[in-house]
Amino acid sequence: MRTLLARSTFSLFMLLAAFSPARAGVQTVEGGILFSYTDAYAGQVSLAGAFNDWNTMANPMTRGEGGVWSVTVDLPEGKHEYKFVVDGQWVPDPDNPVTAGEYGNSVVVVGAGGGMETMTPTSNTAYSAKIFLGGRMISRFISRQNEEKGDRFELRRPTMDFDLDWKVRANDYLDLYMLTNINNENEETVTDFWKTKMRFDRGSLHYHGRRLDLKLFDGVSVGRFDDPLTLVGGIGIYDHDFGYNQQGAIAETEWGGLEFTFLYSDDFDNGGTTIPTLDSLGAAAEETVFDSTAGAYRFGGTRTAVYDASDDDNDKDVLAGRVAYPFRNLRFGASGRYDRGYNPGTLSLIESAVGETTGVQKKFAETWETWWAGGGDVVWGGGDSPWNVRAEVLHGRARIDALDGREADVVIRTSADASEVFADTLYTAEVVQLGENRRIEDGSYEIDRSTRWHLGGGYDFKEIGVAVDLAWERETHDQTYFATSIWDTLENKVDILRFRLDRECERFGRPVKIGLGIERFAFDYDERTPWANQFWLDYRNFWLEQGEHEVSVERLVLLGGRNAFIAEPTIRTTLWADKKLDFLYRGTIAGVDLDKAPKFVESLFRFEARPWRSIRLLSDTRLAKYNDPVLDVFSSYWCTFAEIAYEVAEGIELSLSFGVDPWVVDEMTNEFDEIGRDMFLFGRGANGDTARRNFLGLGEYIPEAEQALENERRIQIEGIVRF
Fold first, then answer.
1. Sheet containing strand 62-63, strands side by side
2. Are 48 and 59 in contact (CB under 8 A)?
3. How confident is the model at residue 421, as a pLDDT?
4. N or C: less crowded end of the chain, CB within 10 Å?
5. Which residues pair with 412 in a beta bridge?
6. Cα 387 from chain centroid?
7. Residues in contact with 687: Cβ distance below 8 Å, sequence separation at least 6, in sequence order
8. 10 Å Cβ neighbour count for 425?
9. Which one is predicted more confidently, 150 or 367?
10. Separation between Cα atoms, residue 487 and residue 350, nearest integer Å
């Protein structure tokens, strides 16, 4: 294994060296800017640029030792494009990673004092002045203790994941980005290395002109709307930007003082589920009344229905727009969004007068759900101002678009069976069609009406290092049968109070950062509301992005209650500056209210140090305590992750660790995030899907998942190369 690691590290180090830029070709010297170019075989080299009208004879370069050609030019303040002319050939500076213009000219920026200013590299390879190559290689070997095989440690299949970023500057207005990936788990059928596929992962084409900013994207972040309630973006418990798992375009422009944003996307992500089979028999007995005198069933309501949808199929289109108008310290905004074409399913309706035994049945073999939302907002302050006041109202509606419909007259017929056990007669009902089907127009049926309000404000007391923010939000839902399976419109609402305080100060000569976040939820549910329609679950709640909204553990134990209170204190400080020993405490306290014992308490303690320049030490301990009489969970759990890492060279790190790594790559963003323990618990049933389908079942899943996290014994060797 050491040989394999050594070979991988050496190969990647050579790749890094090949792609890394060489020494700077330009530098500040007495008398101006020194330009240098190395070519031992050149016969004549000169410097041409905008500063000399691209004259190939104005600034000839002098050859020095080792074939280094150089010239010093006194340049005025500003941006200057240039190239070398080598024996009549125009060549960009191979030692300067900054380029611009249609032809890939090299760029130098001179400041007010006559010295060069640092710029972001746009190229790092000699193959093209317009290409910047970067990437990341992760080699991970995990040996896990197997209790079923005598507690011996067994090596899992190693993970080899290689990302290569391509950033192409086509010109000053057009950039192209692509991320490609090779992963050994995707190459199981490959026997020869030369057959390995570099798989496309995500990419974008970005035009940033003077009046228009346009990005065509496939799976990359395109940000979020800047309204207080964030109609687009801010997705899930990890607050992701919009764009991941999406394909589309976003455009931004300004006209007449108004700032416009337009977004269209299609995620192309079918859930793999089949459209449910159309079944009308259940509608016959659910809302009907048997009349023993008439010997038949009579309808107890005007409508019965069977609606079934594949709620994990998120193949939807999104069309959204925003306009904002800044005026002095005010910023007015309006946002709108329309989602269509997700949750495919079928629908069967029987409509009849109350008390009748016959009716009309409508069958739709194809349905799609859609929703739209829109509203306005205003923000006072913000930007350079230390204070801000903000308000927003959003209203949304969801509906079913029913297609390919047929209708026919139907009757509810009954049959009687004698019961030998109870010595009585059992009557069963069946919908029987009378006559032929008739084609009908497409239908539309409302699922939900919802409104959200936001009112908040904040102030940054910079003189004492304190920032505070306070906000109130309300969310209401009027959900119909198609959302709840209850033949009535259920009205539910929640009031949310959020408070945030951050302070930076010094204690005992050390910098300290203190934070406190508080959320209080006051729920008002109709007592008939099913578990699946809780506010924190994304089932039939269109404000939550479908398929990416997990429910965190502290919220799972609070589901179903009238109130919920969550506090999250944090403390960051440096304990030993010379050894760069930093300490972090982050807590979570979740309960029904301040005067009640919390149902869940989590404490994270992290120590990170760099006692030597190339050595990094990390200890991350988690303590969790449950006190939930509803789920009958009264247990405490703990686990520790310890790591020692050695920085082989800049961008190359090799580490040895024990325990479940909190920091793993988020598949959405392709970046490391502190979600490793969450993924461990979610994967073992402690998640929102379990809560939606069987809430009390969490009483078994949560302890089992937490105990598995505590008992997990794994040794991990990981090598990461970034370039």
1. 26-29, 32-38, 68-73, 62-63
2. yes
3. 57
4. N
5. 431
6. 29
7. 550, 551, 556, 681
8. 10
9. 367
10. 13
Amino acid identity of residue 485, one-letter, is S
463 versus 703: which is more confidently predicted? 703
Confidence of residue 386 (pLDDT cuts 50, 70, 90): very high
| Cα–Cα dist 303/670, whole Å | 49
Is the four-CA dihedral 522, 526, 532, 535 of positive or negative sign?
negative
Beta-bridge partners for 91: 84
Give pLDDT, residue 452.
Answer: 98
Q: Token pair of 443, please? A: 């239908």
Q: Between 196 and 392, name the one with better pLDDT.
A: 392
Q: Tell me the pLDDT of the chain averaged across its residues.
A: 87
Q: Distance between CA 500 and CA 457 in Å, rounded?
A: 11
Tokens of 371: 């929703």
- Nearest CA to 220 out of 181, 262, 178 is that of 178
Output phi, psi for 536, to 5 deg.
-85, -5
Side-chain-facing half-sphere of 594: CA atoms under 13 Å:
3
291, 424, 620 from 418: Cα distances, Å? 17, 6, 68
Count CB neighbours of 476 within 10 A: 16
Taking CA 348 as the corner, what is the angle to CA 346 and CA 353, rounded to the nearest 5 degrees? Answer: 160
| pLDDT tens-digit map of 261-294 | 999 999 876 665 566 666 554 544 444 555 555 5
Query: What pLDDT score does 89 carry?
Result: 92
- Indicate whether 16 pLDDT > 70: no
CA nearest to 377, candidates 333, 438, 313: 333
Name the band, by pLDDT with cuts 50, 70 and 90, for residue 423.
low
Contact 550, 237 (CB under 8 A): yes
Name the nearest CA neighbour of 638 among 663, 619, 651, 657: 619
Yes or no: say if 349 and 303 are a contact pair by the CB < 8 Å rule.
Answer: yes
Does the CA dihedral 417-421-422-423 come out positive or negative? positive
- Helices marked H in 160-231: none
Query: pLDDT (tens digit, 9 = 90+) per residue, 563-578?
Result: 999 999 999 999 998 8
Per-residue pLDDT, 485: 85
Question: Cβ neighbours of residue 276 under 8 Å, at least 6 residues apart?
Answer: 308, 309, 310, 345, 346
CA separation (Å) from 215 to 122, 176, 265, 676? 19, 10, 11, 32
Residues 6+ apart with CB under 8 A from 448: 371, 396, 397, 398, 477, 478, 479, 480, 483, 540, 542
Token pair belonging to 626: 């449950």
Q: What is the mean pLDDT of residues 618-627?
A: 97
Q: What are phi and psi of 710, to 5 degrees?
A: -70, -35
Beta strand 296-299 with 303-309 is unpaired
Three-class HEC string of 369-425: EEEEEEEEEEEEECCCCCEEEEEEEEEEEEEEEEEEEEEEEEEEEEEEEEECCCCEE
If one compares 578 and 424, the residue with the highest pLDDT of the two is 578
Residue 187 banded pLDDT, cuts 50, 70, 90? low
Q: How many other C-beta atoms are found inside a 10 Å radius of the C-beta of residue 61? A: 21
Task: Determine the Cα–Cα distance for residues 11 and 8; give it in Å rounded to an integer.
Answer: 5
